[in-house]
Predict the structure.
Amino acid sequence: MKNTVIAQSGGPTAVINNSIRGAIEVLKTSKEIGKIYGARMGILGILKEEFVDISAQDSREISLLARTPSAGTIGSCRYKIREKDDLIRIIEVFKKHDIGYFFYCGGGDSMDTANKVSELAKENNLKIICTGIPKTIDNDVGGLLQPDGTFAICDHNPGYGSTARNLAINILEANEENKASYTSDPVLVIGVMGRKIGFIPASARLADPAREMPLLIILPEALAKTDSRENLEFTTKKVNEKLSLYSRCIVVISEGVKIGDLGILRDDFGNEQFSASERTVEQILVNYLNGADRKDCQGRARSRLKVHGIARGERPGTRQRREMAYVSEIDQRESRGVGAYAAKIALSGETGFMSTLIRAPGDTYKIIYDKVRLEKVANSKREFPLNWINSNRVDVTDAFVNWAKPLVGGDFPQFAKFKEVTARQICGKYTPTGYRLGGKWPDLPKNR
């Protein structure tokens, strides 16, 4: 019997632990497996020889992984293997602990690490089976969109569905707030995660597939790659178009949109760490809409909005990727399944693979678990399909909605919506005194 090491890398998700659980459950039934260890803080735990004995844990604790968010149980990291010394150390630790199986759960960078370990084991004639388990809220691991409407290699990544559901419900709630406060706060700008790929912000459309809300979705792929000023002016124009129709507007903007100097920091892999940047896209946009760059000597701004009031900003932050309250049951089920399938791949004796989710073509949602060589997904970066971006550049198409809808699980919350049955107006028309000089007070639209 050989022992096993399981590790996690990169940003966590609400369902990452359920993938670990799926692998553990399969491994525990095998007579080929001795101890199952969890490496503390990802690959760093292997380098530092810090293992948690998962085999010694109570079965109840293993089952609770299904409802435990983020990656705190065994930890994660963003450490990039730079020198061969690290790889040699990993092999040394594996030898000493009689490790025959290594599972790494993460995104494209993590698959690169798993692939390096797999290749080094082969070079040293070591029988260590290395297997990847996909995980990323950005949905950027896998191939391009195919003619049948599915994605090659890995249709979607565990973690994305729950983040998409989280955002969609947030938009439903934000719409209620915007309806309540638009006479003073007509614009709400919500910055969301996803780096420079648009799958997360695009999921805002799932809250309103009928397109009844005054909603703008700003994707990195839809705007200019280098001209921040052009992007600000274009977005402001689109905001004012919505204000002309609704007197209010909700803007969902990806953290990776080119809209100004954010003062970005990067991790060991060179990835932008937008949550740690000096400035955020939503704050830059809010400042521009409010005219903070052209305030007078008394500190009064000159708004660029067509209506009275200000734009406010909101950044949900890392709660987007960890909240169990909004977890998708589909995402939860598939995360467990992809972990279990990874264990089955390894126990079959095959090394150097990542388990994947393949969507069957057609109207009925069905997933098939499959595998792909690690080198094919190492450092991979999927692109958001350009033909899923609406021609107006501030929305996504129904094709995206149809693809994403099954991933977010069951029904969303239902909110009250009064009929537009109003009392007859019998007094003369009146403009509140505070709006008589500004010239921006609109006729109140229907409460949509």
